[in-house]
Design goal:
Elements: H1 9-17, H2 22-72, E1 94-95, E2 101-113, H3 121-131, H4 137-144, E3 151-157, H5 159-168, E4 173-182, H6 190-193, E5 195-201, E6 206-212, H7 213-217, H8 219-223, E7 232-233, H9 238-254, E8 259-266, E9 272-278, H10 316-325, E10 334-336, E11 341-343, E12 346-348, E13 357-359, H11 360-365, H12 369-379, H13 381-390, H14 417-424, H15 433-444, H16 469-485, E14 499-508, E15 515-528, E16 535-542, H17 560-574
Parallel strand pairs: 1-7
Antiparallel strand pairs: 1-2, 2-3, 2-4, 5-6, 8-9, 8-16, 10-13, 11-12, 14-15, 15-16
Helix pairs in contact: 3-4, 3-5, 9-17, 10-12, 10-16, 12-14
Length: 594
């Protein structure tokens, strides 16, 4: 680049010769040089702006083009390219047989305190006591002003409570994330679900563990991330369970009973469709275990599984079915019912005098203790014990509940001949309502042994045969006759052909000194429809008393039977069973057309 001097000698000499000022030439050259420099800078800036403008144009054009492509394309969820399954950290849901939620999880928070960070402990204590009435303001203040540096306030709080604590404005009150177990249906199926609580916990997380029921029995499954969040599917039907609880609660109140239990079971699969124990509780606020007194008085006690009772005459069908299976009798065999039946110092009597003889069918229909005892004497102690063992009456039920092992039957110390006779009509052997439901299902479904289960089954798993199919059919006819013309006449439900057997057993005294005169366990064991049974229903009332008459009536025919009939009337349509209505032909009416 050639640089022009600011004071060229030739022009300077000419300017001096003409008497001009040479500095003007220098100033002019300096101005021209500056203008040239500015022109170059301007050209360079304009070039850069042009390049930047082109870059922005290209970028916006690319974005606009991409947006156009996305707008005209079909939406599609993004897919991960990683290998392996996601890890599910939360506890799995529990659902009924139709997929309806019985137990699930709710994201919430815990509340704890760092007293050393509090500015006004008195105000914090006062505010917390107002939000949580169960907390003592004086105790909170003592904790906040003492030597403690960490203090749990509440393990879980609601969003409203969290906002109220926020409004206190104390920097020493802190929150931690929590996952709480929620039972959206409240007390419905409480004894089956059981409940959950916290195991290991810290301020940032807590371990939810099952403490009772299926929550505890299937705790490992519900917490296993390998299941990828698959729910635990139970055999229960939520709508049937709710209806059964409502009916049983009303029946318990009307019959002035201390407690009640019911079991509704699929007769072919052993699936428990409904199981109720009253009084019950809300698993969202599970009560504490009784430390003193009778545990059966606690609402936590599951009467259907843990409660073992002498279930009375409901046992008579087992003695008859076994004797028929052995070929000792048939439905028309005449049985000696002359009483009383004496064995040593024991006297066996009937509720009424039924005469010298009854047919086997009428022994069941009229519920003769003497007739059943004589049938049992033909069977013998060893064979009776083996038969009841095959039906599951000699050990705890294998149902999937953590409380099931505590419901072991109470067996006689010496299975003597008198034990054989009394057990045949339901005394001397204490079992649970679930045992009874399993036994009835096994004998009356065609004679195939079933196992009770709370898990949804997909198909029928064949079990061992306990009685022949023809024996099962004859016993079903006997149970139908009990409702039609026997002790369970209040059990008739139009359209559903109910069959069943009543049982009223005197309640033993707590100290083992005999039986109460005015306290009974009333049970009705039923099947429906009787001609082709689909379900077994057991209803048991503890110390019922029907007081509408001049004297209290405590027998199952007056107490448990009407409750069971109402339950069948309510739940049968929910189970998809259509009532069978006999068509009546009109007489003397002719339809003509004009």
């Amino acid at each position: 680049m050639t640089r022009t001097p600011l004071r060229p000698l030739a022009r300077i000499l000419k300017a001096r010769a003409r008497g001009e000022n040479p500095d003007v030439i220098e100033a002019e050259n300096l101005r021209l040089r500056h203008e040239a420099i500015q022109d170059k800078v301007r050209q360079r800036a304009e070039g850069r702006l042009l390049v930047l403008g082109l870059a922005f144009f290209c970028a916006f054009a690319a974005i606009g083009g991409r947006m156009g492509v996305l707008a005209s394309s079909v939406p599609e969820e993004p897919r991960t390219t990683t290998v392996g399954n996601p890890i599910i950290g939360q506890r799995a849901d529990i659902v009924d047989r139709n997929g309806r939620i019985l137990a699930t999880n709710l994201a919430t928070h815990s509340l704890f305190a760092h007293p050393q960070d509090m500015i006004d402990p008195a105000n914090a204590a006062r505010g917390l006591a107002a939000i949580f009435p169960e907390l003592d303001e004086a105790q909170l203040l003592a904790d906040f002003t003492g030597a403690r540096r960490f203090l749990w306030i509440r393990r879980q709080i609601s969003p409203e409570q969290m906002q109220a604590v926020h409004d206190i404005g104390s920097p020493g009150l802190l929150f931690g994330p929590r996952e709480m177990r929620l039972y959206p249906n409240g007390p419905i199926a409480a004894h089956i679900l059981g409940g959950a609580s916290y195991g290991r916990e810290g301020v940032a997380s807590a371990e939810v563990i099952g403490v009772a029921g299926v929550e505890r029995e299937f705790d490992a499954f519900l917490r296993d991330p390998a299941n990828e969040g698959a729910p635990l599917e139970l055999s229960l039907d939520l709508t049937v369970q709710a209806a059964a609880e409502q009916v049983l609660s009303g029946g318990m109140s009307l019959m002035n009973a201390k407690g009640a239990a019911s079991v509704l079971m699929d007769i072919h699969t052993g699936e428990i469709i409904s199981m109720v124990s009253l009084p019950d509780f809300d698993p969202n606020n599970r009560p504490r275990v009784l430390l003193t007194g009778d545990q059966s008085d606690s609402p936590l006690f599951n009467r259907a599984v843990q409660g073992v009772y002498e279930l009375g005459s409901t046992f008579k069908i087992f003695a008859v079915a076994q004797a028929m299976e052995l070929g000792l009798i048939n439905s028309d065999t005449m049985i000696d019912t002359q009483g009383p039946l004496t064995w040593g110092r024991f006297r066996i009597r009937d509720f009424h005098d039924y005469g010298a003889q009854l047919s086997t069918t009428d022994v069941i229909v009229k519920s003769s203790n003497i007739g059943t005892a004589r049938i049992a004497m033909q069977v013998g102690a060893d064979r009776q014990q083996a038969f009841l063992g095959a039906l599951g009456f000699l050990k705890a039920t294998p149902v999937e509940l953590s409380e099931a092992p505590s419901g072991a039957p109470l067996l006689p110390r010496n299975w003597s001949e008198i034990s054989t006779m009394t057990i045949s009509y339901g005394h001397g052997l204490s079992t649970s309502p679930l045992h009874l439901a399993t036994g009835y299902a096994s004998v009356l479904n065609g004679g195939i042994r079933v196992e009770p289960t709370l898990l949804r089954q997909h198909g029928i798993t064949p079990g061992p045969r306990v009685v022949r199919a023809d024996v099962s059919a004859q016993v079903r006819q006997m149970l139908r006759a009990v409702v039609v013309r026997g002790t369970a006449s209040f059990g008739e439900v139009p359209g559903y052909a109910v069959g069943g057997k009543t049982g009223t057993a005197d309640k033993p005294r707590e100290n083992g000194g005999g039986y109460y005169d005015d306290k009974v366990i009333a049970t009705f064991a039923s099947i429906f429809p009787a001609d082709d049974p689909k379900y077994v229903l057991i209803v048991t009332l503890d110390e019922p008393s029907e007081n509408s008459g001049t004297e209290p009536r405590r027998t199952a025919g007056w107490t448990a039977v009407p409750v069971a009939a109402e339950m069948i009337r309510r739940v049968a349509p929910l189970l998809g069973l259509r009532p069978q209505v006999d068509m009546v032909q009109s007489v003397g009416v002719t339809l003509t057309s004009n």
